[in-house]
Amino acid sequence: MISTAAAAETARKSLAHWAEQAARPLTLMEVCGTHTMAIHRHGILSLLPENVRLISGPGCPVCVTPQGQVDQIVALARQGEATVATFGDMVRVPGSTSSLERERALGADVRVVYSPLDAVALAEALPSRHVVFIGIGFETTVPTVAAAVIEARRRRLGNFTILAAGKRIPPALDALLASGELRVDGLICPGHVSVVIGWRAYEPFAQRHRLPCAVAGFEPTEVLEAIVALVRQAAEGRADVENLYSVWVRPEGNRRALKTLESVFVAGPSRWRGLGIIERSGLLLREEWSDYDAARRFGVEEHEVAEPSGCRCGDVLRGILAPADCALFARACTPESPVGPCMVSTEGSCAAAYRYGRRRGQ
Ligand code: SF4
């Protein structure tokens, strides 16, 4: 719940005022999985006026990883030629026929690491093994993957590669908004990604889509402040980018992190679960770093693969379906026995809804 009753009441009154001024239904999208969790955990939905609703967007990196890429990662582990090092969430994501967790139980060498540099250290500690780091993440994580690749070259490690699966948030949001599939009246921009890319990165599509944007931190009062700002913009007919996380987010972002990222990766097409292939939304290894490309080295390809039967993660990620409206939610699909990635990841919308009880249609 919000930290103080007084702060919650002040925010509720402000929201009610601007929502009344807007005088129409407003749909706001939170893009970041960490925001989704904060919104549920702190009971923010209970403070929204009748005409304001929040939906989740494609801001959970594990969730947007397409089924074909999950299968590609599982195939790599199944080959048995490399140790697969990955963040913990990925281990339990079900592929079409198996998961990393299942392959590990069958003897594959799958290790959970807490940073890409841990995987470099693992490669150095296991000179007789090849270590592949699964490079899933957004602009927040990919600079650290780039730094790991640079470090592996500096240490002259010939037994370290990555599966390049990084993604860029702005092109995905642009594609989602351009699709016309849903009306969004305001965007809570992801705090962590914004630290790296800067708040100016949102200006082009705020203008193109006439969309109010607010960069927000993760404290409940910060999320509420962003919601109030977006509703106020809607009421006043503005479409600005407001940076409400100025302690960490600068206009141009973190130039050093971006430079590191761009020295190793280049923007290219990438497939997103639920969104399909989006131009320039992926971060691909530059040709001069192709020695570190695990897909090329081990001959594992990503194919187009259908979602698990009955799973609506694609619709959830596009914001057109509330998790509780998936027929499998809390029945065949639970955190203990997940059918899709949105129920696995700690940042997944379905996991958040299950844990904190978002109701149908919300
Ligand atoms: S509840 Fe489970 S099956 Fe349904 S969309 Fe979410 S993850 Fe997929």
Describe this structure in words.
This protein is of the alpha/beta class and 362 residues long. The chain is built from 16 helices and eleven strands. α7 packs parallel to α8 and α8 (142-154) crosses α13. It is globular, with a radius of gyration of 21 Å. The chain starts with a helix and ends in a 6-residue tail after the last helix. The structure holds iron/sulfur cluster (SF4).
Number of strands: 11
CATH class of the domain at 5-61 and 181-243: Alpha Beta
Q: Please give the count of helices.
A: 16
Structural class: alpha/beta
Order of helices and strands: HEHEHHEHHEHEHEHEHHEHEHEEHHH
Radius of gyration: 21 Å
* Helix coverage percent: 40-55%
Average pLDDT metric:
94
Classified in CATH, the superfamily of the domain at 5-61 and 181-243 is HypD, alpha/beta domain 1
The order of strands across the largest sheet is 4-3-5-6-11-10
Residue ranges: pLDDT <50 for 5 or more in a row? none
Q: Oligomeric status of the shown chains?
A: single chain
The N- to C-terminal Cα distance equals 18 Å
Query: What share of residues are in beta strands?
Result: 15-25%
As for the CATH topology of the domain at 5-61 and 181-243, it is: Rossmann fold
Summary tags:
362 residues, 6-stranded mixed beta sheet, 5-stranded parallel beta sheet, 16 helices, globular
